[in-house]
Write a structure and sequence with these properties.
- With 265 residues, this protein is an alpha/beta fold.
- Helices cover 47% and strands 8% of the residues.
- It has one domain.
- Strand 2, helix 1 and strand 3 form a beta-alpha-beta unit.
- Helix 4 crosses helix 5.
- It binds zinc ion (ZN).
- The site of zinc ion has 6 residues, from loops.
């Protein structure tokens, strides 16, 4: 079996060349918006990717997809892609995709933003694309957060509301200044998650909520939303929770330690 990546400048199918039957063509969705599904998003990136899948279909009998699920430029940043996971997996299935790789945070300490929830939902989807994903979201929240589950669910809905039905798109290298990460959203999100942390009953559930708060704090720290002593305190809380969680990287290319050193410049 041979593998060829259809990635960035090689994403368009060839006009006349045809892969042999043992060649996997792996099409990569790196440019896409993930706030909205491939079919619903109005961005030109998603329209082009839809066109490319349809164009590859008759060319490549072994069409695979390399798909992206967190923000790789800022692993600890809210990434509102929960609404698009199921429709996109079904879009691939409907277009005869034979293999699907859902790439997550691959750093050594890989507990990125909502990583455990996303991994659970994607595992369920890859097993059965038509599964009841809302039920799986609920069962995860209940098991991971206990009595804090409804509040964490409210936070997830608030995050998705920043992009639902809006001309605001999300890409995998978005910076913290994006329109779906406005200061009022961050403040409300932090209030909701603070009440969630208080509602959690066990130490491990409280810790799970604290880890879930990191992305909100990350953007508040990175954008200067908090200043002075409040900033010092928030950085310290962030680093304490992140180290306890074993988080090693703040992005593909920057470690947590390097990020901390940048505070002192
Ligand atoms: Zn979009």
């Amino acid at each position: 079996m041979r593998r060829c990546i259809a990635y960035q400048y090689t994403r368009k199918p060839p006009l006349t060349l045809r892969p042999r039957p043992n060649v996997i063509i792996r099409l990569c969705s790196i440019e896409c918006c993930f706030a909205h599904s491939l079919e619903d998003c109005k961005s030109k990136e998603n329209a082009q990717f839809r066109d490319d899948i349809i164009a590859w279909q008759p060319v490549a009998p072994l069409l695979y997809i390399w798909d992206y699920t967190p923000n790789f430029g800022h692993y600890q940043q809210p990434f509102p892609n929960l609404d698009s996971l199921q429709p996109n997996v079904n879009f691939f299935v409907d277009h005869h995709v034979k293999g699907l790789f859902e790439q997550g945070n691959y750093s050594p300490g890989g507990m990125g933003e909502l990583g455990p929830l996303r991994a659970y939902l994607l595992a369920k989807l890859l097993w059965n694309p038509k599964t009841d994903l809302a039920r799986h979201r609920q069962e995860f929240l209940q098991a991971w957060y206990g009595k804090a589950a409804p509040k964490v669910g409210a936070f997830l809905d608030l995050m998705q509301d920043q992009v639902r039905g809006k001309d605001i798109h999300a890409h995998i290298f978005d910076r913290p200044q994006r329109a779906y990460l406005k200061a009022d959203f961050l403040r409300t999100a932090d209030e909701i998650l603070a009440t969630a942390e208080a509602a959690a009953e066990t130490d491990i559930q409280k810790f799970h909520v604290a880890v879930t708060r990191l992305p909100v704090w990350y953007v508040q720290i990175s954008t200067g939303e908090v200043k002075g002593e409040a900033l010092e305190s928030l950085r310290s809380r962030f680093l304490q929770v992140a180290r306890k969680a074993g988080i090693s990287n703040i992005s593909e290319s920057k470690s947590l330690d390097e990020w901390e050193k940048s505070f002192k410049k």
